[in-house]
User: Fold this.
Amino acid sequence: MVDRDILIVEDEAKIAEVLKDYLVNAGYRVSCLDSGDAVVPFVRQNRPGLILLDIMIPGKDGMEVCRELRRFTDVPVIMITARVEEVDRLLGLELGADDYICKPFSPREVLARVKAVLRRVYAQPADKILAAGEISLSQETRRVLVSGQELRLTACEYNLMEALLSHPNRIFSRNELISIVQGYDFEGYDRTIDSHVKNLRKKIAVHLPGKEIISTVYGMGYRLNAGRDEQA
Assistant:
């Protein structure tokens, strides 16, 4: 099954080996690359189920690799970084990464993140159609349509859209959305959800220009507007 195939992109051999051992022992099939230049050709040929992608790698860095991947695939990407500045975290998420892990980390934490991402991406629920206004979502096919046009979403963006569509007009706090979107108890940087909302708004706006579909409720969180005045 494709969701058991993991690609590790890490130029520090010891780190790559430890991660590989943990993942293999957990039942995953693992491939390793140590250069950013090799990632896109590998993914096009092998179609892994998830990528652990270090930012600081030889050749193309992780940010550029993630940007190129998102031009042709929605494969889940977990960024690995030694940088702790907010701008690096936000940039990685805005490029389409599904999650990030900061060094130093424990292999157990990485395994937990991998399992959480794979669960939410490859789960097969009974089909249910969620809809509000000109937006609809199929839980079976994981397709989101806006005015009849399909949106290409990352796993996190899809989960965010599913949560908001499940309860139109309800205000979700950032912490609630993080728990739903990331799939585990998240500690630390709670503004990561803002990046996913920003990306989702941009994609919706292509088909519904001039409408505020997802509103920011200051001091409280976010709400998907349904049956409200959607003019921005």
